[in-house]
Write a structure and sequence with these properties.
The protein is α/β, with parallel strands linked by helices and about 500 residues long. The protein is about 35% helix and about 15% strand. The protein contains 19 helices and 16 strands. It has helices at about 10, 15, 25-35, 55-60, 60-70, 90-95, 115-125, 170-185, 200-210, 230-240, 250-265, 270-280, 285-290, 295-310, 335-340, 340-350, 380-390, 435-445, 465-485, and strands spanning about 5, 40-45, 75-80, 105-110, 130-135, 160-165, 190-195, 215-220, 325-330, 355-360, 375, 400, 420, 450-455, 490-495, 505. It has an 8-stranded parallel barrel with strand order 1-2-3-4-5-6-7-8. It has an 8-stranded parallel beta sheet with strand order 13-12-11-10-9-14-15-16, with helices on one face. It is elongated. About 45% of the residues are buried. The mean pLDDT is about 90.
């Protein structure tokens, strides 16, 4: 087959694993790709130190490359981020890997094309094959007009110009049109790297091959940033029918090797990624939203619509002007809010001036019969949960939103439209500003409460917590610590809690 195949599983898949892959996974990966019709392996980045954690393939140190070079019979590629790499950095980043890596691919934003040419010339002078991995292919003709006409500048410099469908939304007809323009201006090899937001990775890649591209990219099980890439096993299975020799026993081992990671990280397309692909919105934020426990698909779609429409938020509500009160009870989602509800309701009925703030509507239906002022925090899934747990005829309270504009847009139950308000600001923290707990604590400040009780913040028991439980625990601890420091008084839990940041006082001594 004329077109070469580049496997970038370890580099692109690292967005899910922080570029950490176990030695066993890497060993099987190398052993299987040695027997598959793959020409290049892009194994990771070469990066200067960053504040964020990245594993071994985020830096691809010399020791790792030596092991790969010894065990792999394929050409090896590494990637540099052009935006964070200067020519003077190359001695540190590339000199140590001469003779270990064959190709250096530069991740390039078209707006930095001129700067990337300078960097590429310096890389080329060091003896490496040089490739431009040029992003945002679907916007080259609209937002980067004239960019394609300047491709002649890489002639004699680049060995490969790879077209990257960053948003996963390009169509086969656009692939044909753009590939023809690239080939008309660039004399080097041309490649295609497709993302799979709209499940067009295969047809776009096959279209690129029909158009005569020299390289195509794919990954094991489509592992890659956001919605992921074209599945290598799918590409090879298709090309087997075109005469490519593929050992399916080996291909099966190659796929099985990454299946546990797919089970763990669940990459692949879904509705938010599809919408981002259709509207050509970057995947970085969408990936963060999709993996956030608090964000519903509705909220993600709303945020994407707001981006597409170039608006800060889709709704604006009056600021909360609350009636001051001495005491506030914040009800969280833990089981204690149900186990001790009779005692709590007895206390609230005898203290009608205590305002009640529901962090979540999970237990709100159990407290509909109290006459105290009620406030409901709306973030993420909460509007949907409220509609499920409270009937329109039962609603009697105020819904409170984070300050405008809200990152994920705004959703409010129809029956609460006239009783919804937004906070002016959250003053006690700069962290987790779209958290229901942050909103609840700010409401308590706005109510000028002198004493703040909480219930339903039980904490998670056990030595081993799930990632979701750890995230929520860290979030709550951060907010509690910041709030107590600002409030200058303790937050008091009326039931036992594992949160050491809370002071405990029994509800039963209050009734």
């Amino acid at each position: 087959m004329k077109t070469k195949i580049l496997d970038c599983t370890l580099r692109d898949g690292g967005y899910y694993t922080n570029w950490d892959f176990s030695s066993d996974v890497v060993k099987t990966y190398i052993e299987t790709t040695n027997k598959l019709p793959v020409d290049y392996l892009e194994v990771g980045y070469r990066n200067k130190p960053t504040k964020e954690y990245m594993g071994k393939f985020g830096y691809t140190p010399v020791s790792i490359l030596k092991k790969l070079r010894k065990s792999s019979n394929k050409k090896l590629a590494v990637m540099l981020n052009e935006k964070s790499t200067l020519p003077e950095d190359l001695d540190e980043l590339l000199t140590p890997i001469k003779g270990l890596a064959d190709m250096v691919r530069l991740a390039v934003d078209p707006k930095n094309f001129e700067r990337a040419v300078v960097l590429a010339k310096a890389v080329k002078a060091m003896g490496f094959e040089v490739a431009f991995n040029t992003m945002y292919m679907s916007k080259w003709s609209t937002e980067y007009k004239g960019f394609l006409d300047n491709l002649s500048e890489i002639n004699g410099v680049a060995d490969l110009f790879c077209m990257v469908d960053s948003f996963g939304g390009i169509t086969p007809s656009e692939v044909r049109e753009i590939t023809a323009k690239v080939k008309a201006n660039a004399t080097c090899a041309v490649g295609f790297h497709g993302h799979n937001n709209l499940q067009l990775g295969l047809i776009n890649t096959l279209t690129a091959i029909e158009c005569g591209v020299d390289f195509v990219d794919a990954t094991a099980l489509g592992m890659g940033r956001g919605a992921g890439n074209l599945n290598m096993e799918l590409l090879l299975t298709y090309l087997k029918n075109e005469g490519l020799e593929v050992d399916f026993n080996v291909l099966g081992d190659y796929v099985s090797n990454f299946q546990p990671l797919l089970d763990e990280y669940q990459w692949g397309t879904n509705l938010p990624y599809m919408i981002s692909g259709a509207n050509r919105i970057p995947q970085k934020e969408v990936m963060e939203w999709v993996t956030n426990r608090a964000y519903s698909f509705n909220s993600i779609v709303r945020a994407l619509d707001n981006k597409r429409n170039c608006v800060a938020d889709n709704a604006h509500y009056p600021l909360l002007e609350a009636r001051p009160t001495d005491k506030v009870l914040i009800i969280g989602g833990g089981n204690s809010a149900i186990e001790h509800q009779e005692a709590l309701k007895e206390y609230l009925k005898s203290h009608p001036n205590v305002a009640v703030i529901f962090v979540t509507s999970r237990h709100a239906a159990s407290y509909l019969d109290i006459d105290n002022d009620k406030y409901y925090c709306l973030v993420g899934n909460e509007a949907k949960r409220m509609k499920r747990n409270i009937k329109a005829s039962e609603f009697n309270g105020k819904c409170i939103l984070a300050p405008f504009p809200r990152k994920m847009g705004t959703e409010v139950p129809d029956f609460a439209e006239d009783s919804t308000f937004e906070l002016k600001d959250i003053v006690f923290t700069q962290d987790y500003l779209d958290s229901c707990t942050a909103i609840a604590l700010q409401i308590a400040l706005d109510l000028e409460a002198k004493d703040i009780f909480v219930i339903g913040y039980d904490g998670y028991k056990g030595e081993v917590l799930s990632e979701k439980e750890m995230d929520l625990t860290n979030e709550n601890r951060t907010l509690f610590t910041g709030f107590v420091s600002y409030f200058k008084k303790p937050l008091i839990s009326l039931t036992d809690t594992l949160y050491k940041e809370l002071e405990v006082k029994s509800i039963y001594q209050l009734i």
